[in-house]
Write a structure and sequence with these properties.
The protein is mainly alpha-helical and 412 residues long. It contains 18 helices and 2 strands. Helix 4 crosses helix 10 (191-207) and helix 9 (163-184) packs antiparallel against helix 10. The radius of gyration is 26 Å and the shape is globular. GO terms for molecular function: oxidoreductase activity.
């Protein structure tokens, strides 16, 4: 220590020792990168390993699963591991259903998918129905009410909807998400997960009142190919309904980009026979390369560089103090139906839509009850029948569902 000013001095030996303790940045940075990538590799597959450990007894024969077990297994890919591709596959399942000449004449006649003033709500209601059935509890009160309302809507058309069309749409809902995830996901779905989807959708199908659902994935693939061979061909109504859907996707896009975006949209329809039945040309090579390359790169980056999400997504509408259900702005697709008109929701919608959406009475900002979903003109007429069917479905569930009763649910 310097006696004159009280400062502490460091000897040359101490300075050299201090410098030797400092780790150079060119060693720290690569070490941190290696540590992070190792952590990603260790954690990315943790959820599927835990799930397979829980259901180890079913891996050799997953068709023994019941629908409740299947629901939990299905939620891993749908709400945790790859919800983006799961939703994308489900959206394109709906688009591909419009290639069936047996179903689109009725869709065109109802105008629900062709009228610009109705197509937005139809799309949002379809999403809400699917979320209630897939992410929610079909045994609970709101799940039973949603399914009963869906049955009532379809029941209005009686024999005009072929049982084969129901089964074909179900097949698309099962197989399309699996195909998209297998091709572009950061990991393919396991056999346990894939079978779980079929087991769960079979229960939903039976509660919708139709049977004829193949027992295995292989049989479902074959049945789907045979049915499409007979019923997938072009008629003008196919193109009419598909164009309405394309228009909905392009609604938020500047007009000068519509041609480019339409080419990208068509490039997602990979099968030539589907494009032909919809009346669409083959997409340009650049569009196919761009969409396919982006999705492949996304899967690669997520697999190797992203930590898994901390918790499952929760897209279900939330109950308010009044008992009604309210959509979360982050899960709105095209129009802000059933979003409460609050300042927070206004800000969130403004940010996510570029200032083009806001909640309000015209989008039923008072929320919804499951039995109210669907065309507004049928809300009062359907209430009584829907309540009765939901009650009857409760008894059906108590008897074990389709596995216990042994046949599809029958309703009036």
């Amino acid at each position: 220590m310097d006696a004159t000013n009280g400062n502490t001095t460091t000897s040359p030996m101490e300075e050299g020792h201090s410098d030797s303790m400092k780790i150079p940045w060119h060693i720290i940075t690569p070490s941190l990168i290696i540590y992070y990538l190792t952590l990603v590799r260790l954690l990315r597959f943790r959820a599927i390993r835990q799930l397979e450990a829980k259901y180890a007894a079913y891996i050799s024969d997953p068709y023994r699963l019941n629908y409740k077990q299947a629901r939990e297994i299905m939620h891993l890919s749908m709400l945790h591991d790859d919800p983006f591709l799961f939703v994308l596959g489900t959206q394109w399942a709906l688009v591909k259903s419009y290639a069936m000449a047996t179903g689109t004449p009725l869709l065109a006649q109802t105008r629900q998918l062709c009228d610009a003033t109705k197509v937005g709500r139809r799309a949002e209601d379809t999403a809400v129905f699917l979320v209630e059935l897939l992410a929610g509890d079909i045994d609970g009160a709101r799940g039973r009410a949603a399914l009963a309302k869906l049955n009532w809507i379809h029941g209005r058309y009686g024999d005009r909807i072929k049982e084969g069309d129901y089964v074909h749409t179900l097949a698309l809902f099962v197989l399309e998400p699996q195909r998209w995830i297998a091709r572009y996901g950061w990991r393919p779905m396991t056999l346990l997960e894939r079978v779980a989807q079929l087991v769960y959708w079979r229960e939903v199908g039976h509660r919708m009142g139709f049977g004829g659902i193949p027992a295995t994935l292989e049989e479902l693939e074959l049945w789907k190919a045979d049915y499409e061979g007979e019923n997938m061909y072009f008629i003008p109504e196919n193109r009419l309904v598909a164009d309405a859907t394309v228009g909905l996707f392009l609604r938020q896009t500047p007009r000068f980009l519509h041609g480019v975006m339409t080419s990208l949209f068509i490039s997602f329809i990979e099968e030539g026979k589907v494009r032909e039945a919809l009346g669409y040309p083959d997409p340009p090579a650049w569009a196919t390369a761009l969409t396919g390359g982006f999705l492949w790169l996304r899967g690669f980056v997520i697999r190797h560089f992203f930590l898994p999400r901390l918790r499952k997504l929760d897209p279900l509408a939330k109950p308010g103090a009044d008992g009604r259900l309210y959509q979360t702005p982050s899960f709105v697709a095209f129009e802000p139906w059933y979003v409460a008109d609050t300042w927070y929701n206004r800000v969130m919608l403004w940010v996510t839509s570029g200032g083009k959406m806001k909640p309000g009475k015209s989008f039923q900002s008072r929320g919804y009850l499951p039995e109210e979903l669907g065309p507004a003109e049928f809300e009062k007429a359907s209430r009584g029948p829907v309540e009765r069917q939901a009650k009857a479905m409760e008894e059906y569930i108590k008897n074990g569902g389709s596995a216990g009763v042994g046949c599809p649910f029958r309703f009036g």
